[in-house]
Amino acid sequence: MSVDFSLEQGKLRRSEQYNTWDNGDPAPELREKDVEFLNEQGLHSRVVRVGITIDELCDLKTHSCDFNTIAPWLDDISRATDSMVVHVTPKHLIEEKRPPKELEPLLYLAIRELKKRFPKIDYIEATNEPDWEFHGAQIYAGKSPILSPAEVYPYYVPYYKAVNRVNAELADNQKLRVGGPALTGMTEFWMTAFLDGYAADSNPQKQLDFVSYHGYGEFSDDFSSYRSYKSDPSEIRDQRQRLDRWLVERQLTPGIPVLVTETGIYPGPSFDDPDPSKKDYLRQAAGQASLFYWWGKQAEIYPFHWVVRHATQGRKDQLITHSAAQPEVDTFSPYGNLLLMQSMMKQTRVKARSNSLSQGLGVYAIAAKDTTGVSVMVWNYQHTNAGRFRTQIQLSSLPAELRDQTVRQRLYRIDQTTSNYWHNPDKANLQQVAEKTLALDDSHTETVELEANGLYLMVLEPVSETD
Q1: How many domains does the chain have?
Q2: Which of 83, 82, 81, 76 has the alpha carbon at shortest distance from 31?
């Protein structure tokens, strides 16, 4: 693979700064330590996504909300991020198929009180996987669906109305943004029905600040089958183009921001190996790197990592939670180490090209530079295949800051035996595997061995006089 540092591609999308915390809170006793650890490791988030079922917390009869059960959780998470997205769901009202307009008073109360109590909440996401919870899951349970595709947008309307009312009471720099509908995937059948509703809404105060969905794969229209992205992450490469086409077809403005508020290669309880410690933890890391690679090449798409600690599915954990001594303190999974690698990338993305990538599988590369040096991430996503690559990393047009002086090169690795809790718990966190000093001109070549789903980070920085 090759990198040309003279070909800039804009500011690098800081993937590691968009994260999520599970509502299940599997290790509440460690949450304060988790926040401190992530912040110390340079993984303070720009935006974190959480979720709340509001009809269990707010009461219209008393015009009040009791946040005692969630306040310690959200207070801790607030210290790990600059901003929060909250998916708010009046679950029971929707299950009862109450008229959408009846949701607005409860939504207004809940959103107003949430913003007042937790000021870092800046985004309100309407519902969470309504296509699954109120339709697909009902079919799988042998019941009649609660919502059809055309009925999702009417339940969105009270959200923007409630947010508009709350925003009228807030200062300009505190106003909330609202969007949705947080579908299970970017499924045309459901997303276009939602956009049809928005386009037909004649209310001049209607608001859709972002579109949201989840990024594991897509159900068929009748929920009889599911296509996961894990066998070919490149399937998501045209999501911006598809969405913009649907918007233009409805005479709506293209380019609306997209929040992919859950991501991964393992939706729900799915797996490749029943024992995740064998290979699934590493597959999750390489698979997420690959999905974020394709989203990162598209404008105004912001995927969120899922998740710091998962209540039941360890292969999704960034911090080791489901071990024999569960949960571990200050201990990354291979997936958590991926976020740490991403945080060590430089600021300006440059052109990187791989000649060993086909249909989403093979060698990926991302490179960046700034005044402190250069960085290159390479990985070999194979999913369940076993392909290995001996990869030459060829760097050209290196920045002037690295030429004609001593440069320190550091290599970091994640694979089945390195930076992997399941091989060696004492060396679970990201491991530096090589270091050397070099005298460079405008080019440099390094060779690495990439096993299936292995990841490397190379960092080149000038040696300072104090080193």
Answers
A1: 2
A2: 76
Evaluate whether residue 29 is within a structural domain. Answer: yes
Element (H, E) at 459: strand 455-462
Q: Residue holding tokens 């080193």?
A: 467
Whether the Cβ atoms of residue 138 and residue 193 lie closer than 8 Å to each other: no
Q: Domain range spanning residue 382?
A: 348-462
Q: What is the pLDDT of residues 69-127, one digit of tens each?
A: 999 999 999 999 999 999 999 999 999 999 999 999 999 999 999 999 999 999 999 99
Residue that terminates a domain, selected from 308, 343, 378: 343
Residue 462 exposed, middle or buried by CB count within 10 Å (0-12, 13-18, 19+):
middle
Question: In this structure, is residue 435 part of a structural domain?
Answer: yes
What's the pTM value of the predicted model, to 2 decimals? 0.97
Report pLDDT digits (tens) over 157-169.
999 999 999 999 9
- DSSP helix/strand/coil, 85: strand
Are 453 and 379 a contacting pair, CB within 8 Å?
Answer: yes
* Measured distance CA(328)–CA(319) in Å, rounded: 7
